Give the backbone structure.
Amino acid sequence: MDAKPKDLPQDRESLEAMLRALILERDEQRLRAQQQRKRAFPEGLDAAVAAGHAELAAATTELQNVAADLASLDSTIAARKQRIDKAMSGARTEAETARNKVETAQKKLTGAIANCAGHSGRLGELRKQRDAEDLLASERRLREATDRHAALPVPERNVTKDEVSAAKNVEDSVRSELESTERDIHRAHGALEQVGGAVARERLRDATEAFELAERQEREIEADYEAWKLLLDQMKEADAAQASNLGQALGPAIASRFQTLTQRRYEAVQLNAQLGTEGIVTGGAARPASRLSVGTREQLSTLYRLSLAEYLQATVVLDDQLVQSDDSRMLWFRGLLSEKAHIFQILVFTCRPGDYLPTASMVPDGPGGVHVDTDNGFVRAVDLGRVLDQRK
């Protein structure tokens, strides 16, 4: 079939032979095609077509079912979306309300924190004032003032300002009566010159005695007032002088120990005449003590109390004064307390004895004694819980 016309043979026999060959080749091709179709459709073409139509019908039905399911699913999705949108709207409203409540609570928390900080500062000031109180010195000044008071003339009774004012009013009234009496006396003298009489002389004597009594009462009241005023002025002067002397005596010692404790981070400590802390010098400028941390303020207060006790040779009591201190500063204070225990008595009440004593100086666990003496008897550790248990 691929031969060109010019290649065809010219005789009949050749043409017939070629035709037979071509027919045979066509039959073979058809046979191969049938065999291929039989292999592709073993049950036959009609059966394959029928099966295809059945599959098409089933696919069409399934497609319709899928379309129905899809429509139902779209309806369900729309309903759920509507519910979700409604729920989201409510949730957004609730979230906005909660956010407003959180902001309000945050503002209240900020205010509470500010109030707490203010109260903490006030508490620190009150603690410093409490720590600055020197009961022994106050008692000594009280005894001195009592002795000076005992040396003064003892009045019959204590008088008040109201009584002084009343006495002055009485004095004015008596003076007025005296002037009136003197005028009466002058008139009586004139009458006596003419008629005389014991009655006028008796009235004059009574008036004179009343005037002298009023003068004595006035002098006594003025003397009592001046004595009490002098005593008050002297006590104020003694308090101011003692506080100034203590500030000058304790200032260098406190500043030196505070510099050593803080590794010379701060240069000096300023004390006023009332032994209050005016400020801490750092970088050549004074800064308020309130800017120090709570632990540093507690350490400065402890140094102040130890220096004052050493100066007065008095006993000092520390009740877990250094709970906000780190290990390095507690180690420094442990050495300072051990050193000062040789000079004056120090009582430390604590539930953390490891902060103040080495392990060898603490009362061991288990049965036995309630105290341990170390450092040649200058340091004594006492387990108060065990002491109370033994007394029950």
